[in-house]
Amino acid sequence: MIGLTGGIGSGKSTVAGYFADLGITIVDADQLAHALAAPGEPAFNSIVASFGNACLSPDGTLDRAWLRRRIHTNPEDKQKLEDILHPAIRTRMTELLDKSESPYSIAVIPLLLETGQTGLVDRILVVDVSEAQQRARVAARDGLSDDEIANIMLSQTDRNTRLSSADDVISNELDLESLQAQVETLHRQYLELAGH
């Protein structure tokens, strides 16, 4: 199994999409977190019990912007949220990956290194991009302030540590054609490894 990771705004979802187009099973920790924290789910109830009604939007769903601000300024609250979500995500991810029928599978885990989950995967694939591009992409995509982006980036493993932990690296500095070509090259390599 391949663990796909990278800093915020690096292009993990785009890369995962290209692997999915090649018929590879993708399980995304962020998507699981959203599903597991939906109203009615046990994790949702635990989050509301821990953070109070202040964490809710008027429509009764989690106010993700409020939670993001809260956890990036308060390490204890960050730990509290992770203690609720991470075990549930890990269990669900394992269930889905066990059902995979593709030659290899990819677990998209943004916090793979930060949460010490490297033992779950056989190889680490890092999507890499300059910090300046990360900031620009996140600002354009999420409309976050420079301070909010800086806080998120500080809470993540730094670029050099990510790169030194990688078995494989995809550079997302150029265009989508370059990105897709790198995915196709790695796909062939992974098929070969899966065959042994």
* Rg: 17 Å
Considering the protein shown, what is the CATH homologous superfamily of the largest domain? Answer: P-loop containing nucleotide triphosphate hydrolases
Helical fraction equals 55-70%
**Integer count of domains:** 2
Instruction: Give the DSSP E fraction (strand runs of 2 or more residues).
Output: 5-15%
Structural class: alpha/beta
Biggest sheet overview:
5 strands, parallel
Name of the CATH class of the largest domain: Alpha Beta
CATH topology of the largest domain: Rossmann fold
How far apart lie the N and C ends?
Answer: 13 Å
- The string of secondary-structure elements, in order, is EHEHHHHEEHHHEH
Low-confidence stretches: none
Overall spatial form = globular
Please list the strands of the largest sheet in the order they lie side by side.
2-3-1-4-5
Continuous helix count? 9
CATH architecture of the largest domain: 3-Layer(aba) Sandwich
Mean pLDDT equals: 92
Identify the notable features of this structure and list them briefly.
196 residues, Rossmann fold, five-stranded parallel beta sheet, 57% helix, 11% strand
Question: Which helices and strands appear, and what pairs or packs with what?
Answer:
Blueprint: E1 2-5, H1 12-21, E2 25-28, H2 29-36, H3 42-51, H4 64-73, H5 75-98, E3 105-108, E4 123-128, H6 131-142, H7 146-155, H8 159-165, E5 168-171, H9 176-195
Helix pairs in contact: 2-5, 3-5, 4-5
State the gist of this model.
It contains 9 helices and 5 strands. By secondary structure, it is an alpha/beta fold.
